[in-house]
Amino acid sequence: SVTIGVQADTEDPVVSANTSVNAFLNASGTATISVADVEISSTDNCGIASKTLSQSSFTCANIGNNNITFTVTDLSGNSTVVPVTVNVVDNIAPTASCQNITVPLDASGTAIVFSTDIDNGSTDNCGISGTSSSPAIFNCSNIGPNNVTFTITDTSGNTSSCVAVVTITDPLSTCNQ
After folding, report:
1. What CA–CA distances, in Å, run from 41 to 13, 35, 72, 177?
2. Are 47 and 112 in contact, with CB atoms under 8 Å apart?
């Protein structure tokens, strides 16, 4: 009689992977990566059963570096785990939306226009961190229409601008005195 010994597979898969990948957020503020974004190659002496990422979906809350793992498991249950850094990036500029307004001078001949006065529902996929308008202070020399640049900045530093027409009036005839 012949005795044939079967040896158990204890050999882990051999994995080559990108250990740093970028995930760019879309207009909805989400990004997804797949095994194909991470894997360069995976081999095993007895065959591969699965390839998984510990996290594949990201949102605005994940902007910056995120540490995940890429795991390759063979048919015998042996695994190789590769740490991967996913840099989630928001590179989409906000959408600036302006409205034209009319502003009266006060009794001292001054009018101040705040950026919120000309903002007409500006939006961003991940949130707005600030707005500004320029010029913002008007006097008698500005009676009539004036172009004002409205700028919006999102939480990732992306900016967008639009121009509103701010018409300055002098209802108190302050400038004629």
Report:
1. 10, 10, 10, 81
2. no
Structure tokens at 163: 């121009």
CB distance 58 to 66 below 8 Å = yes
The encoded tokens of residue 21 equal 């990948």
Task: Please answer whether residues 19 and 84 qualify as being in contact, where contact means their C-beta atoms are separated by less than 8 angstroms.
Answer: yes
Q: Report the C-alpha gap between 109 and 169 in whole angstroms.
A: 10
For residue 81, report the phi and psi dihedrals to the nearest 5 degrees: -115, 130
Amino acid at 30: T
Question: Minimal CA–CA distance to 124: which of 28, 34, 10?
Answer: 28
Helix (H) or strand (E) holding 6: none
Task: Say whether 44 sits in a helix, a strand or coil.
Answer: coil
Flag residues of the chain having pLDDT under 50.
none
Specify which residues 14 forms β-bridges with. 43
Cα dist. 5→2, 8, 9, 10, 44 in Å? 10, 10, 13, 15, 21
**Is 129:153 a contact under the CB 8 Å cutoff?**
yes
Give pLDDT, residue 132.
Answer: 97
Helix/strand/coil percent split, the chain, to 5: 10, 50, 40
